[in-house]
Structure formats: structure tokens, C-alpha cells
Write a structure and sequence with these properties.
The structure holds two protein chains of two kinds. By secondary structure, chain A is mainly β. Chain A has one helix and ten strands; from the N terminus they run E-H-E-E-E-E-E-E-E-E-E. Classes of the chains: A mainly beta, B mainly beta.
Chain lengths: 140, 147
């Protein structure tokens, strides 16, 4: 077993026909983290964030609150043999990282998260007293 | 009279185009020929291919899909993968960002010539489809000993 970054470090090597055609060694960006694509939406109870982090297992996911920021981090693990060399690589880093600043109306202490098939879902509830309340007009 | 809008100096599109060109040059894909079946950078799913003398492994970074819906086929040394990614949409919600890919996808990957299309295995772990293809024995480099 080895991490993805080993494959990525070895660079493009002999490219296949489908590669972008580069046989030159790529820029030394192997360890620059990947910004995972996200969907973010809000409903009346809170905000939900979904991030694509393929190759990250629960053990290698690091989700934390840093000050006012939510930091999403994960390490890619690929099953490959020690002697494997890269023929082609779209993914050239073994690390995902992205951070989001949270507003004070969110309950950062009550964040729930789940990870399934490389998709991270984070639910950040709003403080109960700050949830929008519909005000009913009383009839006579 | 109106001129060509794309010739406007300092247009944001010019800037983006130049940036794209610089990035392509940096990565070397500008001057060298483009693979005829290659797809633009950032296409879903991302693909890595690794090899050893015994086998070739293809990794598709395809999180949150139903692996049963994938259509994986191999013809000689051309591997084709197609499928569809369906993302649920939250009701009564307002979206701020929708960056994740949804819809149909297809990628064709040409592998080394000595792969054996009869010996292919695929599995789906943590959002990565791993397809392992054995290489033919006769093509493997063999150590020759002198007696």
C-alpha cells in the first residue's frame, strides 16, 4: 500500500494517448492541496455542505473548527503496490483542503458530519433563537 | 463601426484566455499534440493510471455514484467507462454553491498494448472505482541468468 502522492510525485512519465499529451515533468505542485468541489445550501434550520473527496476514508478525514472557520481536510489513499509507477494522473496531490468561515448565528458546537463513498456531508444548525419564525396573525 | 467586442483591451475574457494559455503552457500541453480522446482538465471523473510489470490499475475518482450504474467495457487496450451521477436536490432550500458534477459522463482511456482484456477486476471503495487489468505474461520483462 502507498499513498496517492507517490504515484503523483513520479509525474507523468510516458503518457497514454488520452493524456493531455505531456511527457515533460509537470510543475512541482504535487503536494498543493486540492480544493474539493462543494454544494452549499441553507434551509430554515441550518446550512448543509456537501464536498466531493474521493479516496478519503473516515480515518483520514480531518474536520475541525479553527476559530470561526470550518476546516475540511482529508488524505487520499489508493490501493497500489509499492513498485507502481504513474502512467497518467489527473489527480496530482494526495490532500484535500478547504475552509469556510461560519457566521455567529450558526451552532458550531452542534455540527454533524457523515462520509459515504467519498462524499462528505456536514450539517451546521442555526441557533434555535435565530431561526426565522413565522408570525401568525391571530383572527378575532 | 462597432468593432469586435472580443478585441476590447483588458476584457476579462482576454485575461481568462491568457491565463488558461499560460496554465496550459506551464503544464506542457500547449505545444505537444493532444490525445484524440482526451477531455478538458477538470472533467468528471478524474482518472489516474498506475502500472507495474504485472498489471495496470485505473483509478476513477467518482464519489457518490451507484457503482452498479457504471458501464465499464474494454476492447483490446481501450477502456471505456460511462455512467450518470444523480445528485439529490434539497427542497425548500437556497443554494449558495453548486460546484459538484451532476449528469452523464464518459471517459476512454487507452492502456498499454499488453493488457489482457479477459482478466479485469473492478471495485468501488471510498468513492474511487479501481479497475485492475492483468498484463500478458509473455510481454513481461524476464530476467535472464547466465549459467
Amino acid at each position: 500500500m502507498a499513498t496517492n502522492s507517490e504515484v503523483t510525485r513520479r509525474g507523468s512519465g510516458a503518457a497514454t494517448q488520452e493524456s493531455s499529451g505531456s511527457t515533460a515533468q509537470r510543475a512541482q505542485s504535487a503536494e498543493a492541496p486540492i480544493r474539493p468541489p462543494v454544494d452549499i445550501w441553507e434551509d430554515k434550520d441550518g446550512i448543509t455542505l456537501c464536498a466531493d473527496m474521493p479516496g478519503v476514508s473516515k480515518e483520514r478525514l480531518n474536520l475541525r473548527i479553527d476559530g470561526n472557520n470550518l476546516v475540511v481536510e482529508g488524505q487520499v489513499q489508493l490501493e497500489l503496490s509499492e513498485s507502481a509507477e504513474a502512467l497518467y494522473a489527473d489527480v496530482r496531490s494526495g490532500l484535500y483542503r478547504r475552509s469556510f468561515s461560519l457566521g455567529g448565528e450558526l451552532e458550531s458546537g452542534k455540527i454533524e458530519a457523515s462520509l459515504k463513498d467519498g462524499v462528505l456531508t456536514v450539517r451546521i444548525p442555526k441557533r434555535a433563537e435565530l431561526r426565522p419564525r413565522k408570525i401568525e396573525v391571530q383572527g378575532s | 463601426m462597432f468593432g469586435n467586442p472580443s478585441n476590447m483591451p483588458g476584457s476579462v475574457f482576454d485575461e481568462l484566455w491568457r491565463l488558461q494559455q499560460e496554465v496550459d503552457e506551464l503544464f506542457g500541453s500547449w505545444s505537444s499534440p493532444l490525445g484524440i480522446r482526451s477531455v478538458p482538465r477538470g472533467s468528471f471523473p478524474a482518472v489516474n493510471v498506475g502500472q507495474t510489470p504485472e498489471r495496470v490499475d485505473v483509478y476513477l475518482f467518482a464519489p457518490g455514484i451507484d457503482p452498479k450504474s457504471l458501464d465499464i467495457s474494454i476492447q483490446q487496450n481501450l477502456l471505456t467507462i460511462s455512467g450518470r451521477r444523480v445528485l439529490g436536490t434539497a427542497e425548500d432550500a437556497e443554494y449558495y454553491r453548486q460546484e459538484r458534477f451532476a449528469g452523464e459522463f464518459r471517459r476512454a482511456i487507452s492502456l498499454p498494448e499488453d493488457v489482457d482484456p479477459e482478466r479485469v477486476q473492478a471495485k468501488y471503495v471510498d468513492g474511487i472505482v479501481q479497475i485492475g487489468i492483468q498484463r500478458r505474461e509473455s510481454m513481461r520483462p524476464r530476467q535472464i541468468e547466465i549459467h
